[in-house]
Amino acid sequence: MLSIIQQQLRNPDKTAIIAHGHSYSFQDLQTGSQQFARTLLKNSADLAEMRVAFMVVPGFDYVRVQWGIWQAGGIAVPLCITYPLASLQYVIEDTEAEIIVVSPEFESVLTDYSAQQGIRLIVLGADDKPAPVGVLPPVTLSHRALILYTSGTTNLPKGVVTTHANIDAQVSTLVQAWAYSEQDIILCVLPLHHVHGIINVISCTLWAGGTVEFLPNFAPEKVFDWFAKIALGSQDGLFMAVPTIYFKLIAYFDQLPEAQKQALTASMATFRLMVSGSAALPVSVMEKWETISGHRLLERYGMTEIGMAISNPYEGERRAGHIGQALPGVQIRLVDEQHNDVAPGVDSPGEILVKGANVFQEYWRKKEATEATFTTDGWFKTGDVAVLDDSYYKILGRNSVDIIKSGGYKISALEIEEVLRTYPQINDCSVVGLDNEEWGELVVAALVVNDGSLDLTVLNAWIREKMPAYKVPRQYKIVDDLPRNAMGKVTKNELKKIFVVVSGS
Question: What does the pLDDT look like over 459-486, one tens digit per residue?
């Protein structure tokens, strides 16, 4: 039996999942996932790493399907439940999935397509009746377990293949580092085709014997209602989200009556841990959330390819603007463009390289891309640039979109964004570099403001007092919102299209 399933059977009658008004025990999860494994197997003895794509509503069905795929010897391929058919086709065809599993809500999306392609379609509740008892195949840690797709912000998405050994390493490391326990209860508000929700929220909590509650649709008032409910119970509350969600929660909280604010602050103070990830956490959001919740958010660093690699400590200083230190069992290096180690210090940026049991096996059927992303001695090249600042890593940005090369300088877009967000009229912002003949790239900024009368001349004078002239944006654009992907990351290549490209300065 796979480690993640073994771990959670210590207390079979305990509640594992709460979803859609129902509670499910660990025994329910074991029985349901084994039955679904037999449905998948049908007349075969082993799926033998067959890819099974599934488009399933978050909740008990999602987990039993994923675990059922694993127990049948298959590779789980989660599909985003909000993607259009063309995006779903890309993943299904790239993985050459031979089975598609859907919740009834999504049957109409994929029925015709699966029939045309000759792919077996299983509709939950209709095609997954309890199967006869049978022996499940042996599944080892070396078996491929999961294919998740990169965000594809700079090129076509790639399928990231992780083995059961990779997942074990990712989960067991976090359970230890963040002190998960069977007393924990966590709310899942994240999409479940990304590592954040699958590993950090669901897998770690269930591995430790805790409870996962699902919120079908994100709404700030429902999240705060959940905070208040958990504060009255006996379990230890956890909450994990992306910065965009925290920003929305803060905006909602700010318009509440004072008495309700005080009650919610008291509720949140009872929680054990609150975490932010998947995108850089603005210092302003971290500080504001600490004021209203009593929690200094734990910021960490991870990727689809590595799970989590670096984290601020569960106990100890959580340093604003920093992602923390290497997790146990994970090796980290910072290197220059020639892959030479850089010296520690804020003036010595380098690309983050990672090595450890957490690191993925390969990009699905992309041998050249896999080889290109590893050094000859096995270090994974993340493409993210950081500095080691007094033993804490600080992200400067992604090589391809967040490091702007202008006038001979390497400029961190994230650093400029942090400064802009401290301006009273700016709610949010994003900084990018535009190709330019004279400067290489020009620094430009898109601004989401709370007052349409923002005077850009005054803003420009203000920011020139905050940073060197070469870092100051040469062009500003006021926008209603910033383009983002499913995890809340700004899609900067899309953002560049709104700016007017100019030659010279």
Answer: 999 999 888 888 999 999 999 999 988 7
Residue 393: strand, helix, or coil: strand
- State the Rg of the chain over Cα: 23
Range of the domain at 254: 178-296
Token pair recorded at residue 499: 């700016």
Work out the end-to-end distance of the chain between its first and last CA atoms, rounded to an integer number of angstroms: 63
Overall number of domains in the chain? 3
Domain CATH code at residue 188: 3.40.50.980
**Is 346 in contact with 319 (CB distance < 8 Å)?**
no
Name the burial class of residue 391, with classes exposed (0-12), middle (13-18) and buried (19+) by CB atoms within 10 angstroms of its CB.
exposed
Q: Is residue 412 part of a domain?
A: yes
Q: How many CB atoms lie within 10 A of CB 337?
A: 8
pLDDT digits (tens, 9 = 90+) for 188-246: 999 999 999 999 999 999 999 999 999 988 999 999 999 999 999 999 999 999 888 99
Mutual angle of helices 258-268 and 283-293, in 10-degree steps? 100
Q: Which residues pair with 270 in a beta bridge?
A: none
**CA 482, 302, 349: angle at the middle one, nearest 5?**
85
Give residue 3's identity as a one-letter amino acid code.
S
Query: In this structure, which amino acid lies at residue 408?
Result: G
Helical packing angle, 26-41 and 60-71, nearest 10°: 50
Residues 7 and 109 in one domain: yes
Residues 127 and 188 in one domain: no
Last residue in a domain, options 263, 296, 329: 296
Pairing outcome for strands 99-102 and 120-123: parallel
Helical H runs in 202-271? 204-207, 220-231, 243-254, 258-268
CA dist 259 and 428 (Å) reads 28
Q: Which two tokens stand for residue 486?
A: 């499913």
Q: Which of 183, 148, 142 is nearest to 163 (CA)?
A: 142
462 found inside a domain: yes
Residue 373 lies in a domain: no
Nearest-angstrom CA–CA distance, 273 and 184: 10
Domain boundary among 139, 164, 196: 139
